[in-house]
Design goal:
The protein has two domains: 38-381, TIM Barrel (Alpha-Beta Barrel), CATH 3.20.20.300; 405-607, Rossmann fold. The protein has helices at 2-22, 40-54, 58-65, 112-118, 121-138, 168-184, 212-228, 250-260, 279-282, 295-299, 315-322, 328-344, 347-354, 391-404, 475-486, 501-508, 536-546, 584-592, 634-638, 644-650, and strands at 78-79, 92-94, 142-143, 188-194, 207-208, 233-236, 240-241, 244-245, 266-267, 367-371, 376-381, 406-410, 425-429, 489-493, 512-518, 550-555, 571-577. It is globular, with a radius of gyration of 26 Å. It has 689 residues and is an alpha/beta fold. It binds beta-D-glucopyranose. Beta-D-glucopyranose is lined by residues 77, 95, 144, 192, 270-271, 464.
Length: 689
Amino acid sequence: MAILSYYLILLLASVYVLCANTVPNYPSPQGGRSTSPVDDDWNVAYEKAKAFVSDMTLIEKLNLTSGVGFKGMGRCTGNTRDIPSKGFYGLCLQDEPTGVRGTDFVTVFPAALSAGANFNRQIIYDRAKAMGLEFRNKGVDVFLGPAVGPLGTKELGGRNWEAFGTDPYLQGIAGAETVKGIQDAGMIAVGKHFILNEQGTKRTQVDELVDERSLYELYVWPFADLIREGVSSIMPSYNLVNGTYSTENGYLLNRILKNNLGFLGFTVSDWWATHSTRAALGGLDMDMPGNIVDLNHVYNGGDFPLFEDKSYFGANLTLGVLSGSIPIERIDDMATRIMAAYFKTKLDEIRPQRGPPTFSEFSEADTGYLYLPVGKGPVVSLNEHVDVRTQYSEDASYNVAIEAITLLKNEKNTLPLNDKKKVSRISVLGRAAFPNPYDQCLGDGNKGCSLEMQQGAAMMGGGSGTAQSTSFITPFEAVNERVRRDKTSMRYFKGSNSSDPMFISTATHSDVNLIFAQSFISENQDLENDTLWYDADQVIEGACRVNKNNVVVITAPGPLNLEKWIENENVTAVLYTPYLGQVAGKAIVDVLYGERDVSGRLPFTIAMGKQDIVPITNVTHPDPTIPREALDDALLNAGLYVDYRYFDHKNVTPRYEFGFGMSYTKFNFSDIKVHTVKVLSEQLPPPPG
Ligand code: BGC
């Protein structure tokens, strides 16, 4: 009997597996088709959304599902159309990772990777809520973040600094706290970029191949945490996954997101990442910014038709419905999902009190045409310069920055520098300490700062993740201020030439050299190499030749190579931090001087050499000349063994492992009893293939 039931269970299990593998990815599951047992807010939101959508015309529904075009056709990064019969003005979707993009009087917050380095839920939550309130008070409805993809699999990936770190659990917890903070502030949060958006190079063409287990255990995992937290929107990415664009990938959007994970919000494409009207069937609910642009053509030097009136989700979607190829139920679901997100975050209560956006991302003028790029429409107020900065934002930024700074090396109790008798002559070295001569590099990606113009301390990376600086405390300014207060003395040298007599003099005659180094990266690119900018390796080595006490402070978007000098005994201490926003210098100097303990932990592993990092791939899709099996895809090779998993699996010693970070506190251990455990944890079977 026991054997019989054993076989019965096996039979049922295999039928289940067979069925599970043949579950169709269509039709797109309808949001709110059953009530949520765990989140009554969604139930109430769906009731309201269904009622709202029930008497709308097809055109009105489509006004919700597509943007108006770009570059000033609306005030925000993305804008949906109005629905006049309902007195509903279009939604404002605005970027994100460091603050409200493209407007003045906002706080530039530390980057998400800095929040990840905190490993501190409350501080992560406060950063998000403070940011969310600034967005809300500028008139934004949809906050285009947080990013929990890229995961950081490719160490040189250009957007790793916009997410929380190379571990799905950390990404998930930090991402979920961030969603909570943003949505508690009354904004729709958008989890992005779904999925495998691991590199900037050829980001609109790259095809990431992934096996099912790695997909779920590494990349989907953090999105599952966001969904559990009630995230109202998710953004499919530019790239393809296993041969299909994310934005029209029924397996990813219909099956994984909306079916398996029970996602109740709406999906919104990354900007011009939609490739077809049938994306609606694949599970895409909103197309942004709404017009059709071939980004591959643009990236290859082609022109950029910003407001061409062609849209996959406008007229083409109307035709799709009228011709019967797109069911009207799908359109109803798209509109209902968007409105459910709106009611869930209580925008119906917030918007009447607060009004529409008070800024235009695309103009600095006070007034201008409503439809800027075509010079049409009434002249309206564009920028009201509303100051949304608060003490809460300032405190949240400072706390994130302090807790992101990570102590990697501290010989001979060099840090903190609080003994004036030991350290009264201080020299500041390294270009990364000083203000950038180009103001436009301190913010808004629209203002044309090229990589070449990055010539000073960075408060954030570049691209859509920027916010406009109102004031920035550079490391130089903060050291200067501290020295003035302490009545000690400071010299500095801005250049990188370590044989310059002035460099030698400045670096020699000091009690300590504070050497600032960094690396910078912007969206749509990846780091070209893993070395420090502005020849900082030479500066460090030069200083070590003439002085025995050199403290190195590195600001970076991810792991960099420290091998040239890390073991040099004259490098007495090393601090490492992701971008810290406008308070960077103050936070670093407060930690250097022990005003606050140092408690950051690395949100990624720092390898010793290039052989241990996952390369950026140049393989793109579709390229019919390359047989599928011949594609040398980096991710597939990485499989499950990403970051510390790789080092453990291959038994490779990293320079500093994920989670590494010391403090100034001293611990005494006594009477330690050690029991050896043979099997530390379950061994993972090798990934398939
Ligand atoms: C980025 C998104 C961003 C969008 C709107 C895209 O290029 O990948 O993260 O939200 O632009 O600016």
